[in-house]
Amino acid sequence: MKLALNLGYWSGEAATNTANIELALEAERLGFDSVWAAEAYGSDAATVLSWIGAKTERIGLGSAIFQIPGRTPALTSMTAATLDALSGGRFRLGIGVSGPQVSEGWHGVRFDAPLARTREYLEVLRMALGREVVKHDGVHYPLPLPDGPGRALRLTIHPVRDEIPILLAAVGPKNLELAGELADGWLAVFLAPDFAPEQISHIQTGRDKVGKTMEGFEVMSTMPIVPGRDLEMCANLVRPYAALYVGGMGSRDKNFYNNLVVRMGYEKEAEEVQDKYLARDYDGAMMAIPFDFLDQTSLLGGPDRMAEKMQAHAAAGVTTLALALPDSVPTEARIKALRMGAEAFDKAGVAS
To answer: Burial level of 189, CB count in 10 A (0-12/13-18/19+)?
Structure first.
């Protein structure tokens, strides 16, 4: 297993941005394999990664995620190839379909047929990054358009590597299967070792479709890390993040994260979190998140306890463990947590 840093969303505040650069530099000094950035409807991940890439020398750079509705597959291929070239072959491409609120409310793209759209997106990406002439007879991405003057084109920039790894953010069973079939890896959220085999079985189904095993397939899990002696207090720092996703990252009828928590065995709790969050009782929603759920999906406590959690995740099939640091704590505390994560990783003895 490899160790990574997930910076999440970038803030518009200068102090926070400086802190994130410090964290990325510290991760590189500590020997982390990669650093990842996200986007929703604020900062974009590509600019953040280019900034980090210019400040670092060795550490890998990953998008977790580039939003499918926000970019055509052609533009994503251009961005990926450019980042890879500028960083000397360090880029990993993580993509995801986002959700209906962001897709339709921010990007103006209908959230229809997400699986079919993602499949076509991956097909075009493979062609473009493989420097093939892009011709795609699809419903969502017909290239060139059949009724106009456009012609089939080839990406002109040469990526450093023959293939840039493509990872898919997936939550539901069908999307997990698609990740196994067409992607090089899976970006997981709220991964718990006890439930991971059920999720990975869907990925394996996708691998079976194309005659591939799990060998070389990347399973990256992002876990919040909060050091401390009082585990309940540690968990409280993760509650805002968990409540946002379980309660508010989607509508009542279409929240993939809430559905995941239900499948993990927390049906009543997931309903309560969503009810309170949508009623704007944010504190109530946060406190309704079960401690056991937070403990399974986070690194809480001291280095020995964290090491045991890391061992469990490695045994469950995780190949990259990405640490996420709550931005509600000072920079010094976040750097200390990053160092403790590295210490726990050494204790766990799971380095690949």
So the answer is: buried
H helix runs in the chain, sequence order: 14-29, 45-55, 73-86, 100-105, 114-129, 173-182, 196-209, 231-236, 239-243, 256-263, 267-278, 282-287, 291-297, 303-315, 331-348
Rounded Cα distance, 153 and 183, in Å = 23
User: Distance (Å, rounded) from C-alpha 203 to C-alpha 157?
Assistant: 32
What fold is seen in the domain 2-229+297-348? Answer: TIM Barrel (3.20.20)
Neighbours of 86 (CB within 10 A): 16
Stretches in the chain below the pLDDT threshold 50: none
pLDDT at 12: 65
CA dist 219 and 188 (Å) reads: 7
Quote the pTM value: 0.95
pLDDT at 11: 72
> Whole-angstrom Cα distance, residue 73 to residue 155?
12
CA atoms within 13 A on the CB side of 179: 31
Question: What is the per-residue pLDDT across 176-232, written as a single tens digit (0 to 9) for each?
Answer: 999 999 999 999 999 999 999 999 999 999 999 999 999 999 999 999 999 999 999
Residues shown for the chain: 352
Domain residue ranges in the chain: 2-229+297-348, 239-296
> What is the spatial distance between Cα 339 and Cα 335, in angstroms, rounded to a whole number?
6
C-alpha distances out from residue 271 to 194, 263, 265, 266, 298, Å: 22, 12, 12, 9, 21
Q: How far lies 32's CA from each of 76, 230, 323, in Å?
A: 26, 27, 10
Q: First-to-last CA distance in the chain?
A: 5
- Predicted confidence at residue 15, as pLDDT, reads 60
Cβ within 8 Å of residue 275, ≥6 positions away: none
Give the phi and the psi of residue 275 in degrees, each rounded to 5.
Answer: -55, -45
Calpha distance 237→232 (Å, rounded): 9
Q: How far is CA 336 from CA 228, 234, 302, in A?
A: 11, 14, 12
224: burial class by Cβ within 10 Å (0-12, 13-18, 19+)? Answer: buried
What pLDDT, on the 0 to 100 scale, is given for residue 95? 98
